[in-house]
Design a protein that fits this description.
This protein has a single domain, classed as Rossmann fold (3-Layer(aba) Sandwich), CATH 3.40.50. Helix content is about 45%, strand content about 20%. It is built from five helices and five strands; from the N terminus they run βαβααβαβαβ. It has a five-stranded parallel beta sheet, with helices on both faces. β1, α1 and β2 form a beta-alpha-beta unit. The protein is globular and about 50 Å long. The chain starts with 7 loop residues before the first strand and ends with a strand.
Length: about 150
């Protein structure tokens, strides 16, 4: 029987309740396997477009993201788990191959994540449900084990 070993869990987040729950699962997995967590905040398509067009300021997006990540950081700290995080655009209008699923998998490779926890939000056609759409892609193409919650 092979033993599962990894040092880092990647969890993509988008500020939703579902992604907060995924972060909680990521912390639990990290505790069980003595790993740390890398939280990737993925900005949705409407935010990416608004940033590109100048409709919203990057500082406002950063403040919202930071506030959400502080609660995630606190949860990890409360459970003695080391956490780092980054932010990425889930969409870039000039690159068709740049979408949330590919961003998550590229980040997993870049941070050497050995396990992924992805929120599985209901896909209702709402463009802001960025991670729900990405989960299917990640489940299909990830080379790491994936927990979809």
């Amino acid at each position: 029987m092979s033993v599962v070993e990894f040092d880092r869990v990647l969890v993509p987040l988008d500020g939703s309740e579902e992604s907060l729950e995924a972060a909680e699962y990521a912390v639990a997995v990290a505790r069980r396997y003595d790993a740390d967590v890398h939280a990737l905040y993925v900005l949705d398509e409407s935010t990416a477009r608004s940033l590109e067009s100048g409709e919203i300021e990057g500082d406002a997006v950063a403040a919202d993201t930071e506030a959400f990540m502080e609660s995630v950081d606190q949860y990890a700290a409360d459970h003695d788990i080391s956490m780092c995080h980054s932010t990425a655009l889930g969409f870039v209008t000039t690159q068709l191959t740049h979408h949330p699923g590919s961003v998550i998998l590229d980040t997993a490779d870049a941070v050497d994540a050995g396990f992924l926890v992805v929120p599985r939000e209901p896909v209702s056609g709402d463009p802001d449900e960025v991670l729900g759409k990405a989960a299917e892609y990640v489940l299909q193409y990830a080379s790491q084990p994936v927990l979809s919650v």
